[in-house]
């Protein structure tokens, strides 16, 4: 488990996914985020490895205590990871998009997000419940899988179920209006500088 502070109060950590196997099309290490706000430590797609649970939970406890509470958010239903257990630890309900909630077997809610956090919903026809979160103060975008880290930049990854690739890509273009510095991805290396430019390059590659 590797933890980095990307900006003040913005932490990005990677851990080995327990369901990973050698034939998987995604890397074993997956990305998770904590964003410290005045009211809550916002934990996005958290994964607490079983073999490191004591150390990892101590880290989460410190963030939550410092912020005075916790919020647990999912970028996609298949990123549930340790979210139910983490939410139970802090007495909160996991936030998931409405289209994602029907795919999850534990309690979720789609109410207001913590201050400083905005949700972005891509278009297209797949409607799998995948979203991104824009964190205003650190100018960071946290994505599920429609962007992945590749070769120092980003690549667009659309769902195999997507029937209208052009509509999907077009729906991502409003992201270029956001002043994004960091793009924190679930898979691959995150973009830590010039995020808006890296998103534009990925979309132009078509």
Protein traits:
Metallo-beta-lactamase, Chain A; 5 helices; 22% helix; globular; alpha/beta; 206 residues
How would you describe the overall organization of this protein?
The chain is globular. The protein has one domain: Metallo-beta-lactamase, Chain A (4-Layer Sandwich). A hairpin with a 4-residue loop joins strand 3 and strand 4 (41-44). The protein has helices spanning 53-67, 83-90, 98-101, 165-172, 195-205, and strands at residues 2-7, 10-16, 29-36, 41-44, 70-73, 94-95, 108-109, 117-120, 132-135, 140-143, 147-150, 153-156, 182-184. By secondary structure, it is α/β, with parallel strands linked by helices. Strands 1-2-3-4-5 form a 5-stranded mixed beta sheet. Strands 8-9-10-13 form a 4-stranded mixed beta sheet, covered by helices on one side. It contains 5 helices and 13 strands.
Oligomer: single chain
Order of helices and strands: EEEEHEHEHEEEEEEHEH
The helicity comes to: 10-25%
Overall radius of gyration: 16 Å
Number of strands: 13
**What order do the strands of the largest sheet run in, or round the barrel if closed?**
1-2-3-4-5
Low-confidence stretches: none
Mean pLDDT: 91
What structural category do the secondary elements indicate?
Answer: alpha/beta
Shape: globular
Number of helical stretches of at least 4 residues: 5
- Look up the CATH topology: Metallo-beta-lactamase, Chain A
